Amino acid sequence: MTTQAMTAGRAPMPGMKVYNLKLGMWIFLLSEVMFFTGLIGSYIILRFAHPEQFAAPGQVLNINLTAFNTFLLICSSVTMVKAYAAIQQGDQQGLKNWLLATIVIGASFVGVQVYEYIALAGEGFVPIADAYHAVGRHMPHDGPAIGGQLYGSTFYTMTGFHGTHVSIGVLCLCFTYWRAAKGAYTADNLGGVEIMGLYWHFVDLVWIILFTIVYLV
Amino acid sequence: MSTIEQEMVHAAEGGHHDHHELPFIRKYIFSTDHKMIAKQFMFVSLFFLVIGGLLATMMRWQLGYPGEPMPGGMLLPDAMMAPTPNGAIMLPEFYNSLVTMHGTIMIFFAIMPLLVGLFGNLLIPLQIGAEDMAFPRLNMISFWLAVPAGILMLSSFAVEGGAAGAGWTSYAPLSVSGEWTGVYLGQQLWLASLTILGFSSLVGAVNYITTVINMRAPGMTWFRMPLATWALFVTAILILLAIPILAGALIMLLFDQTIGTGFFRPEVGGEPLLWQHLFWFFGHPEVYILILPAMGIVSEVISNRARKPIFGYHSMVLAIIGIGFLGWIVWGHHMFMSGMNPLLGTSFMISTMAIAVPSAIKTFNWLATIWKGDLHLDSPMLYALAFVSMFIIGGLSGIFMASTPVDIYIHDTYFIVAHIHYVLFGGSLFAIFAGITFWFPKMFGRMMNETLNKVHFGLTIVLYNLVFWPMHNLGLQGMMRRIYDFTQYEYLAPLQPMNQFISISVFLLVAAQSVYAFNFFWSIFRGEKASNNPWDSNTLEWTVPSPPPHGNFPEMPVVYRGPYEYSSPESDTDFYPQTKPPPSKPPVQELIPEPVTPTPEGF
């Protein structure tokens, strides 16, 4: 790997163990960690303060559907690794194919999430506190509400912010694909693919935590 | 990500090395040059500083002359002022907006961008020997996110219901619904504006941290970095980790207001206290974001103007890091009165008082630096000394409030108003005056007028103390902060003369700032031409022309020593630039190609 292309044309400096793009991405991800920490921390506090507002796992949320979605996202991390491995070997075609696969799977994740939102909203599970009336899955619509308003608020905020991150990731992947199609990446100059991968794996990791604490616990 | 990549390609293709003249719009508006972005931040934040000062002036009119028509009040719309035959009287709702917007604008749009946006951008690349930031285009985006945030914030004055009125801390449930404040859209604009500004700061922080870690010149080890850069580096870490917490909280509050979620609404089970925790978990690091760069600037100026090495350089660095770390575990001291387990309160009290240790280390180091120094009492030094003395007063009153039993008595009174202004105005703003005056020649190639600066300094330090010192007394006598008309309480009515005295002092203090404003603009065009190194300083920014060209350093500087080698016996002058090769070492050219190994002085 030539350092010149990856270090913005500078000779190796004190500290220059990692090229700027990668270091910058890691630092940015630290702030992302803090962002989701804030959201998850608030969720934990609200849930401990008002356990009666939250339903048992599976009562309202469709765990099977989301488990499938989780599987999709993990697969997309694998294809992202394959894309990076391909360009490490200088395989331009492999890079494009695996990037395309990642885009398709990532977009599918967002699609499934939108479908899930529509289905849940149809059952009265909404973020608007005053309109909340979730009766639970496969229950008659005029039944008693399960959980409370905070359930809807926290669910949509947390999964929604994750979904936004995935959507932004898909857009960035499209850009990476467009650059790859122009032949911008080589075995010596793959910083763009690597930091795309870092972001994508981070989003994947966050989802595994969210899936556990929002759906399974 | 796109911009980073393009930037990398741009830089790899040679970047600035081709010296073609940039078109006007690329050079002055959408510039990627860190020095130009620093100046952009400076002009915009100085504008906001003036706005914030005017808001304070209006508040002080109401407090000094409660219920009396305000001069010029007829010019303001009826939503703010109630017209009477004798003139317009301020409405209580507008007073609430003034309190909120004065705090918000001064903290987020004046002091923070001046310290971080101006000095971070100006000093970091120049002091570590880099040609620019690690991501110049992200740097430009950082500025151009701050501008719309500022426009949104100001525009909230014009919407129905007026600007946000729940205080700069925006406590829930007061801030959640317009039912309580009468402010609907204004509060949402406030939240949206700060969220956008948060992005701006975040992007800047990523840039600063990457630049300091990765772009240092050969020989610039961690412990050869100037203290201003050290302070800005730690500040950037605080911004990076604190701002996302604020962003999350702001967005949750915005959702509560717009789509009706329930995070902070007690009527649906939400937790208003959660807002306070989230806000202050951000807010206390924020306080150090506002003071650490000021400490760094002052360290530069004091060492230089005393012509002595800074006393205890390593302890200065460790104190910066210590303050940065302790800032994360003290947020509860803002909430002693919000209902808190006394045991927890005591822990927060102890951790807060622990911050006095690194702060005192810094203060004594500054004093020891001045001790028997060859003092040059020109204006940057005067401002810096004002910082140290005012910071001591503000720091000591902070310890009063850190102790729970005292805080119960003085919480939410004018004592806290006095304290915050002693550290933010007496501290940060004096350091900003010191910094702008000190680096003015580097920014504009001209010196500021010394006489005018001394006049400004004399007026400001006296009037400033006349304004804020009596506020301690007001607070101890029970006058609460954020109050529209304190004379409605019988026990506070006797404080009217003292309030009037403070208000008159504020009017004079604000008027005195015009001296600096005049000097600033006059000196940009008419000031005495400055040499490359007018202060005989050691650090790298003074080795390049004033103002430095695009790309900063004609060739890569090599650093041989720390930044504060003043009056060194090894040098024939009373300063010893970081780039000057020691007599026994080989010349520069032979050093450049070799990869540099950190000296044992480094980590």
What does this structure look like?
The complex is a heterodimer of chains A (217) and B (603). By secondary structure, chain A is mainly alpha-helical. Chain A has one domain (18-216): Up-down Bundle (Four Helix Bundle (Hemerythrin (Met), subunit A)). Chain A contains 6 helices and no strands. In chain A, helix 2 runs parallel beside helix 6 (191-216) and helix 3 packs antiparallel against helix 4 (92-122). The longest helix of chain A is centred in the C-terminal third of the chain and has 33 residues, at 149-181. Chain A is elongated and about 60 Å long. The N and C termini of chain A lie far apart (45 Å). The model of chain A has no long low-confidence stretch (mean pLDDT 90). Chain B is an all-alpha fold. Chain B has a single domain (29-526), classed as Cytochrome c oxidase-like, subunit I domain (Cytochrome C Oxidase, Chain A, Up-down Bundle), CATH 1.20.210.10. In chain B, 61% of the residues lie in helices and 1% in strands. Chain B contains 19 helices and 2 strands. Chain B has a two-stranded antiparallel sheet with strand order 1-2. Chain B starts with a helix and ends in a 12-residue tail after the last helix. In chain B, 56% of the residues are buried. Chains A and B meet through helix 1, helix 2, helix 5 and helix 6 of A and helix 1, helix 7, helix 8 and helix 9 of B.
